Amino acid sequence: ELKVEQNPLFLSMQEGKNYTIYCNYSTTSDRLYWYRQDPGKSLESLFVLLSNGAVKQEGRLMASLDTKARLSTLHITAAVHDLSATYFCAVGVGRNRDDKIIFGKGTRLHILP
Amino acid sequence: ETGVTQTPRHLVMGMTNKKSLKCEQHLGHNAMYWYKQSAKKPLELMFVYSLEERVENNSVPSRFSPECPNSSHLFLHLHTLQPEDSALYLCASSHLTSGEQYFGPGTRLTVT
Hints:
The complex is a heterodimer of chains A (113) and B (112). Chain A has 113 residues and is mainly beta. Chain A has strands at 4-7, 10-14, 19-25, 31-37, 43-49, 55-58, 61-66, 71-76, 85-93, 100-103, 107-112. Chain A is globular and about 45 Å long. Chain B is mainly beta and 112 residues long. Helix content of chain B is 0%, strand content 57%. Chain B has strands at residues 4-7, 10-13, 18-25, 31-37, 44-50, 53-57, 64-70, 73-79, 87-94, 102-103, 107-111. In chain B, the strands form 2 sheets. In chain B, strands 2, 4, 5, 6, 9, 10 and 11 form a 7-stranded mixed sheet that branches. Chain B has a 4-stranded antiparallel sheet with strand order 1-3-8-7, with no helix packed on it. Chain B starts with a strand and ends with a strand.
């Protein structure tokens, strides 16, 4: 059974600091997604990573994928309060009708002013 | 209207009521999903439809009944729910069942 583990699950950090959220998964995959969810809101797609070594950046967020290590990271640079949210990674597995996406439990990020 | 829409946005129902949640996607996708999100548990996949055919049912109680009449619409019929079913119900769609999912705003359900 595919397992997707995020680390840490909770993170409180100060503005201006850098930090990394890790997403480990237990089976082969070349499709990984990062989502953001604000309190009481729905999920918003942030990044789609489709190959080993893929790196994508948007503002202060950068995501990378290492399919050999079965690891994706979401790096936050010089955090600002607006980035406070819950971040989910999700891994795509299977082919054709067995396709599915499995979500991690989410990392709740709280950035202190 | 674009994206994924859900109605109603908020719903309060008694345990003996019957209600339905509606989801509509305007993205030309062929897969749709229902998720449950509650404070006590992470995002739980309930149902997956691909090309209007149910392809996954994650051991969801029969008091939840999905319906997918076409590739743009997805319903979740509710009856005799329990208070522990109170949660945020999210609908999503994607081009493929392992592709990037686009989420609707959710329905906040409270069962009294």
